[in-house]
């Protein structure tokens, strides 16, 4: 017997129509925003150098790119960061999230080709942790939050762990307080992450290899087969395994002056 999963109530059809309008128009708006011209610290911990190369060289993603819904999920994270900052200040933390002129704290290296912006820095507070201390915050769904709670930042969220390490390295601060909020239950996670110089150096070296490349295909894949689980959901899976050569769009072919 065939089961019909089409909307069966009037509000189902209205919900579907409204969602389609919102996602289509918001995607069109966000897709028009210029892409970063640098390799962001929030990505460098990714397990695949070639993926980073595609991002840095601004190669278009397979298919239609990010959906409107995914863009809205990103927005939820940004708004959640603002809420968490307010909670922390109410609790007595001296948290600075911007300079006096309103600009973000951050760093730039390798001629501006590697950069990052931190969520904030604690100067003092009621929690017994080392100060000053950098702050990074994420909003996670229940499944992702539970995995973080059970396994810790380095194992559960290696990209976020790497992000914190790079910030500490380039901003010369020895600790980061990583916080997360469960979007479903509003549970809060907190972990003090100490600086690991060797780990940060390895990530920095990887970043330099990426921004020094003339083409993403100079960089190694993380896997030997297209069917590898790490490749299955990659935004550049088809492009990567098609082995189609492209002209470089951002990085020069000559050896950069900072090397």
Structure description:
By secondary structure, the protein is α/β, with parallel strands linked by helices. It has a domain at 67-213: Alpha-Beta Complex (Lambda Exonuclease, Chain A), CATH 3.90.320. It is 41% helix and 16% strand. The chain is built from nine helices and eight strands. Strands 2-5-6-7-8 form a five-stranded mixed sheet.
What brief labels describe this structure?
single chain; about 260 residues; alpha/beta; 5-stranded mixed β-sheet; 3-stranded mixed β-sheet; about 40% helix; globular
Topology (SSEs and partners):
Blueprint: H1 10-31, E1 39-40, H2 49-56, H3 68-90, E2 94-96, E3 106-109, E4 114-117, E5 120-124, E6 133-140, H4 142-151, H5 153-156, H6 158-171, E7 175-182, E8 188-194, H7 197-212, H8 229-232, H9 237-242
Parallel strand pairs: 1-4, 6-7
Antiparallel strand pairs: 2-5, 3-4, 5-6, 7-8
């Amino acid at each position: 017997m065939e089961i019909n999963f089409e909307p069966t109530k009037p509000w189902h059809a209205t919900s579907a129509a409204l969602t389609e309008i919102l996602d289509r128009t918001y995607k069109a708006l966000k897709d028009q925003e210029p892409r970063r011209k640098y390799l962001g610290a929030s990505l460098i911990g990714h397990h695949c150098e070639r993926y980073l190369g595609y991002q840095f060289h601004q190669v278009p993603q397979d298919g239609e790119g990010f959906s409107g819904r995914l863009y809205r999920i990103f927005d939820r994270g940004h708004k959640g960061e603002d809420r968490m900052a307010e909670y922390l200040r109410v609790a007595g933390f001296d948290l600075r999230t911007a300079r006096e002129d309103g600009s973000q704290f951050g760093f730039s290296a390798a001629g501006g080709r590697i950069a990052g912006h931190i969520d904030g820095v604690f100067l003092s507070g009621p929690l017994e942790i080392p100060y000053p201390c950098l702050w990074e915050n994420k909003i996670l769904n229940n499944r992702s939050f539970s995995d973080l709670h059970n396994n810790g930042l380095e194992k559960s969220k290696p990209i976020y762990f790497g992000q914190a390490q790079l910030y500490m390295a380039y901003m010369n601060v020895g600790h980061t307080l990583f916080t997360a909020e469960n979007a479903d239950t509003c549970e809060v996670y907190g972990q003090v992450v100490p600086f690991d110089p060797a780990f940060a150096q390895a990530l920095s070296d990887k970043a330099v290899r990426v921004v020094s490349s003339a083409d993403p295909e100079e960089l190694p894949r993380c896997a030997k087969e297209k069917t590898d689980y790490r490749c299955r959901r990659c935004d550049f899976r088809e492009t990567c395994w098609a082995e189609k050569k492209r002209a470089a769009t951002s990085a020069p072919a000559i050896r950069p002056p900072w090397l």
